[in-house]
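Much of the work behind modern protein science is quiet bookkeeping, done one molecule at a time. The protein below has been through that process, and both of its lines are reproduced in full.
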Amino acid sequence: MAPPPRKSQSKNLRNPSSKAAISKGNRRSRTVSSQKLPLQLEDDVPDFPRGGGRSFRKEEKDEIGSILDNEIEANRISLEKKKKGKKVQKRNHSGEDDLGSLFGDGLMGKLPRFSNKITLKNVSPGMKLWGVIAEVNEKDIVISLPGGLRGLVRSCEAFDPILGGEVEQDAEKNFLSGIYVGQLVSCIVLQVDDDKKEITNRKIWLSLHLSLLHKGLTLDIIQEGMVLSAYVKSIEDHGFILHFGCPYFAGFMSKHSKSEKGSGEARVGQILQGVVRSVDKARKVVHMDSDPDVISKCVTKELKGVSLDLLIPGMMVNARVQSTLENGILLSFLTYFTGTVDVFNLDKTFPSPKWKDGYSKNMRINARILFIDPSTRAVGLTLNPYLVCNKAPPSLVKIGDIFDQSKVIRVDKGSGLLLETPTLPVPTPIYVNVTDVTDKEVQKLEKSFKEGRLVRVRVLGFRRLEGVATGSLKTSAFEGSVFTHSDVKPGMVVKAKVIAVHSFGAIVQFSSGVKALCPLRHMSELEILKPRKKFQVGAELVFRVLGCKSKRITVTHKKTLLKSKLEILSSYADATDGLVSHGWITKIEDHGCFIRFYNGVQGFAPRYELCLDPGSSDIGSMYHVEQVVKCRVVRCIPASRRIHLSFNMPLTRAVGVESVKPGSLVAGVVELVSPHEIVVNVNASSHMKGTISLEHLADQHGLATLMLSALKPGYQFDKLLVLDIEGNTLVLTAKYSLINSAQELPVDVSQIRCHSTVPGYVCNIIESGCFVRYIGRLTGFAPKRKATDQWRTDLSEVFFVGQSVRSNIVDVGSETGRITLSLKQSLCCSTDSSFIQEHFLLEDEIARLQLLDSEGHGLSWISAFDIGSIIEGKVHETKDFGVIISFEKYNDVYGFISHYQLAGTTVENNSTIRALVIDVSKIERLVDLTLKPEFLNRPKEESSISKTVKKRKTREYKKLELNQVVNALVEVVKETYLVLSIPSHNFAIGYASITDYNNQKLPPKHYTNGQSVSATVVALPNPTSCGRLLLLLKSLSDVTESSGSKRAKNKPAYDVGSPVQVEITEIKPLELRLKFGSGFHGRIHVTEAADDNSSENPFSDYRIGQTLSARIVSKGSMPYSSNGSYPWELSIKPSILKGSGDIDFFIPPEDFNYSYGQHVSGYVCKIDHQWAWLTISRKVKAQLYILDSSCEPSELADFQKRFFVGKAVSGYIISINEEKKLLRVVLSPLAVGSREHNENDPYGHPKSHLIEGTYVGGRISKIIPGVGGLVVQIDPHLYGKVHFTELTDAWVSDPLSGYHEGQFVKCKVLEINRTGSGTVHIDLSLRSTSNDRHDPSFTEHSSGMHSSTQHVDKLTDLHPNMVVQGYVKNISAKGCFVMLSRKIDAKILLSNLSVNFVDNPEKDFPVGKLVSGRVLSVEPLSNRVELTLKTPIATGGPKSDAYSLNSIIVGDIISGRIKRVEPYGLFISIDQTNVVGLCHVSELSDIHLVNIETKFNVGERVTAKVLKVDEERHRVSLGMKKSHFKDDETLQSRQSLDDYVEKNSSMVVSKALLQSASASIEKSNLEVESGYHSSADFENRALVPPLEVPLDDIEIPDDEVDVDHVPNAANAEIIEEKNKRAKKKAREERELEIRAAEERLLEKEIPKSTDEFEKLLRSSPNSSFIWIKYMAFMLSLADVEKARSIAERALRTINIREESEKLNIWVAYFNLENEYGNPPEDAVMKIFQRALQYCDPKKVHLALLGMYHRTEQYKLANELLDKMSRKFKHSCKVWLSRIQSLLKQNSDGIQPVVNRALLCLPRHKHIKFISQTAILEFKCGVPDRGRSLFEGMLREYPKRTDLWSIYLDQEIRLGDGDIVRALFERAISLCLPPKKMKFLFKKYLEYEKSIGDEERIESVKKKALDYAESTLV
């Protein structure tokens, strides 16, 4: 009880009118004075809740007094009217009422009579309770509360919402896995259900939210030693982050201190209890310890000013006894509070009648809080020794237990008895209420029961929290068959009373009080909609128990079930075969009924067991749901919980059925057709009927559906197979696969042979496999691992019930008879034409059935469209997918020609065409046609079309034989089959199925028109194949063969080395099959036939049955026969036969002795389109790659024809795999230079056999666009590159026109380069004359010049005036580059492109154009060649330039046209000469011109003065200043000519690399015309800034300065001066850097080749600028691998001290992999991990973050920021990066990041971080959030003018004048030093001046003067 009273005792008044009267007044008037309380409160302790309490006014006291007087008088009159006995009973009830009312402090000066007791009447929302978990269910928790109450906690109330959605979702899946039964928890009441009819039905809903329990808990109140509960919010490396329900602080508990008993491993969301070890108020963290011993001993200390909200149930306090009550004691604790302890919570388990003597006044005792009621301020305590030790009392009894020797310990007058029950290990107290003592009314309990008496008691319940059981001594409690739920058994008949009737059923109660539900459907035998009239409340009826699950009992009142004398079926174990029992139908399906029995047991009765009449389609017409039926158990599988039932009691069959057995063939006539099956009359008799399900109409499900839709009664089935007999009905099938194999299908297990392939059908699919049925009930099982070739999780995706399959018998259990199958396609694929044959036969039949009732031509049209015939038709319509053809005679038949079959032929609508029929769809009435010439132009022998067709068919098919393997082309791809043509047999047309029996449901393999396939002929055209040639695709026909043999009974002992006489049984290309001895089998491998493998056909001289002498060399490991025996390996080598017979001689050596380059021989054992597999010996194989077999393209194309199985092949080893015993060979001998083997490679080095100058076979892999050339594959994993100039021998305009991808070519290896990282670059040539490097007759003389149109491969072969040819490689505004050969590029200046003016160089000289030019100059040292495409004017052409130059004299005034405008001057073409002069920018005008591009135009005529002529360098300097013409005539006006547009073009450089540096090297500019080098080139280069790779992408403007480094305004002027000097110094440093860059570029021109870059790098190896430019150069050549290798070189070369330079390379590497990596994320991450080992991790992280932001990879950026926040949590820049990223993505989670950052950052960085965050909010986010941050800083640091300055700058930038002025007014109103105020006034004045308001300017000046005057005073 808390001292400030909230309610008076008027709450206990029983008169409702008095309560209403009081409620009309002020609620606070219920407070009474506390001066008579036994506890005096301190003056400074306010009333709860810290205010609001007051005393009654006089009027209110008078009103309450009158109400009390009236009520007392009314009670007195009422009591006088009662009898004396009733008066006693009334007093007892009054005592009970007093006992059930909670009281607080309004005691009116007297002590309470009873202690507080929690009941359903006084439980109210907001009450805090202590409880113990009794049950943990899936959706809720049951908690045992004080007073024996039970509360419920929903799943959503188990966790605080602040924990987040992830924990809540996890809680729904695995609800409260960390909570255990017996755990003590604190909870709060949320709601109490109001049940006015019965108070015992009220439910108490609780919550475990700590935010409600810890309401008002602050960090200041928490002290060391306090015990608190908390959630585990997250699990870290060293401990747990705890959540107390308050967002203002958190907790931490180390893992080693976590030892919560019973909780095991801590999980997120689990409730833990711990004691406070320390409180870190700076970081707002409470450190906890969960040692249970420490928790159980911690007592809450006295806290001054503690409120009732801070009391938590379970808190241990040190209390002082105030007094004893009738049923407990009154205690005071924590100075201000009082509480009561009832008799069930004393410190003694069995308190005696004199228990009060043990509690003296002021006695100190430890107690725990049991409950707190905020509304009445009542507090309950407990002294229970278990609870005081923070443990739940043990539960040693169960409900329903009977104890005969229970001793009476105490008799409570008018209340009950306390018994001591003997249980182990300690006795258990049982309390018997006075109402449960006897069946009769007891007047005086103390006289009937004496202390120490032994009684018989039955346990009724158990109060877990107090550890007290409740019992009964009534005689009726020991009677009856049902007392608790555990006594209820399914099937038992009981009597019960109806206590409630609802729409869903009736609630009944047994005599013991146990309740049950009788569902509505079980109230009657028939189906009813509402409860029957006999179910009245209070009626006693007889029921039978259906089941009992989770204390939920269901009963039935169905008369048939009540009177049933049959056995009760209540478990699957009871379901024995033949058992007959009653059940009720729960569900009716088309295929049967589901029957329910007792205790949830369920079975299934299939349709044929329901006693239905044949043909009856509706089961519901005979049965209905909830109908009681008598069933017979046919079969039960308890493990799978399945029962097969039957409604047929006597097993009788109709006459004639016995003559038909499963497996026999019958005929039948359709009688009835239903959606899922048909009924037939078998053998044309009416007494035998059978059914055919939809799945059994055909092997293919699609055809079965069509067949069912076409069938009608009266249709005759000629052949049907009897699968089974069910009752009186035959189960039939029309599947062709089963009918054709009827004689071979097994009926019994004894007929099953291992390793044989048997057709069947799938009857069931389960998770572990599928069942296949044959005849009758003979069933095999295919496990999941044997069902498919590839692992499948769900077999229902592969098979369906009823599917036809071919099964391979794996094993038959000798004892169990279980058949194990394999359904793998590789073992069970078709070997004949049955699958596709059925398709065409059924198609004909379905088409015939569909046309029976239709009017028209019927099927007569089919004869006009024979396959292979040529017909005429008219183009009806042209579609995107093909052409539709109509026929004049047949209006309802259409033809179709696909684009592929058009073969490039163009047809027009309504035009007549002749086409060849390749397929006919009779169902769809569609004909597939072709216009391909190979079909139409086949030779014709007869004039008649029909005769021609017959002759052609005969000619096409006469050479084909069954089982012949042919190569075919795909012509048409149908849904289930392919239309193929066989080119080798005059394009004969055949048909092959895409799918097979076992893979019908799988997606078919994709085929395309024109694709080449291999197939086997399985049926020639005949009537059974519908006149079609049927083929079997090789992919379906590869079957693992097996043969059977009988087990030999007497096997002699053979050993390795034994000579034997063998008989040849079979001859194969690679082995001889033999038999010897008594039933022994063996083989002779092809490599064991001769001492060498050179013989072409070593088995050609042998025949079957021939006897040979052989010797056993080993016992093989290959299974041979079906009975599991293994063959022997034998040899007939002459050297082996002559051996001594020693075993060691025949055992092959273990060493794998093969070496690189060794010559080996073998035989081809397998061939595909890429590899030929050779067998070198019995255990050694070799591979021959297609490109290693020859270098001639024609031979490579015929690879599979040249190499066939059994062919002898010799080759040379280039690779050795000792582990797999596998070699790789090539056919050509290895060159001498290639025999150096790489020993580091355990598998050999397959590239080492290639040397320069050799010819190899290749296959074009990729055609690079432009002038990239070709990528040619020369090895399985090796590719070479063919340069654009190495494609053809002659110079042609389009050298790529003759090549296509996949084409075989003959290549010559020109050069092989191996990098340090192992990458190999190979240059190839396709020129046949590429080896002719130089020829003396290479040049010829023409007009005094040398010319050549051949290839030039060496720079030394070039000389001036030589005519050469090449391809344009690149074009720019300054000229172009031309490829002369693989290694030589030449440049052509723009002026040398043509004699005429070139308007658009890119258009006139596109990339790849073939040009012919003349060599102007060759520089061998720099590898530079310059060409001209101009034709000479005369033989003395070269002298004309000099002549024109000599005619120009210094001082002359010349006229000309502007040829080019550059930033450094004008290039002017002088009239009547071919000289171009330069007018420097300094000579253009007497005044300085800033942008000359806008002043002058290309082609404009100008006049200039010659200033200088340099004849040696062929240069002319001109001037255009007016001062040069002051003595000359007036200048002519400039005239405009044609505009000349120059477009800058650059090589393809990686965009990512350009972003990796803030400045990059400019593209190399071509030299100006006539070789003129001016300073303008250097001016351009001087504009290149030094390389700086940005390491931070946070954009902070210039006006946003670092707050920590911004001094106060007192030094503002000094700072401003320093800033100016700093900026000046920065400009000077910038100039020095530019000058240094200019000097570097002056010394060396920008590189244009790898050699130039290498030369430049030798002089500057530490320059990341050059390295990055080198990488960009390689990317411009599309050589990504080379760029990577350059990056690796740079990282190895740059000095370790140059960290910034290395970091630049890493960043460039990031961008490279981000653009070209595969995949980019993984490639970038690998480089990133490497960079972390060499550079500053923080800088590397920031660099990677910048790249992610630039490329807009925000997801990766966010993941990286999460890692950086943990790794660099003390870095301000990292947190600012995260905030900026959130702002860019418009995210709302800014504030949590700011809070977390402030917790992690050091204190001195807070101002910097907050100010920069605020600036970012102003710039990119929400300005209001930025203002809040600034305002928060200014409240703490109001005198920091730097913060005011930044704040003002941001507001000024936004432009809201009112806000800015208000902020200035606040700033100038501060009391600051004069220098700081001067700074603020000056800033204010500058702002007003910028606005331009004179009045406001004067106002600011006035305020400044006023301040100055006030400071002087």
Summary: The first helix runs from residue 16 to 24.
